[in-house]
Predict the structure.
Amino acid sequence: MTSDAITLDSMKYWYAAPLEIVRAVFFIVAIVAYVYTITLLWRKEVYNGNLRLLLTVFPLSPTITLFANFAQHIMYLRVPGWYSQGAFSIIAEITNTGVISRVLNCMLLIIDRLIALYCTNTYENSAPYLAVAVVSMQFLGAVLLALPCTYGLVDDATQAYILCSATFVFDVVFALLFIAAKKLHALHRNLRLSVQHRFLSVENLRAGRLLTYLMVAFTIFNSAETLFFTVIYNSQDDKPLSVLLTLAELFLCLEVLGVYHRERRRGVTRTLIGTFGLLVTILWTE
């Protein structure tokens, strides 16, 4: 082994170990926050059972991705008993499934709002079975859509760009649905419908506002992660590569941490936008 190779290996050791510790901390914090969030969500019972289940599942996808990434890091370090080609393929499939199902979460929220707006009675009476059916189709679809990337039929870059573009399409559709919900609420108020209809109309509008912040936050996360991926995909330098991977995982943890705090949702959104700007600045000054 040459002296240059020894020096490079030493550099890798000194900055890789702290980054692995940071990743482990991110992972643990994200899991604890996820458990706390779903406990709070179901204990308060503020929203319809279908929506509560969807909000419970929403952070599950980035949590799956975090777990798969963490397992890949362990395998990359070649811990005895972990590293094998078969296990690596399985974890790659889990990672791709988590990434795709994260974007499909946006489609689930659109389906939820469509049914809540135009089939209100069905939506109210089917909780949480409607959400269970939709979520099952989501993960089955994510597994099938992940196969081409796992087996090399579609490269990672193409998948990332398609998913990022799909996120913006879902945002536009969701925005149109939210506008429709506001107009429908105004119509219900003018028609002086029953108390039950007016209550459901207010509930739909309130849920739509919450999900709007969630969609905005997710779009920020997904765009930042795609930007990080673009740099990582074309990077030949291991040191910035590890730093960028850690930043991307920080975004995944932030995604799990807190967009559900209803009382502070505007502050959370502003904080996320500020964090996005800060990390992009760090990215381009590396």
Notes: Residues 265 and 271 are 10 Å apart (CA to CA).
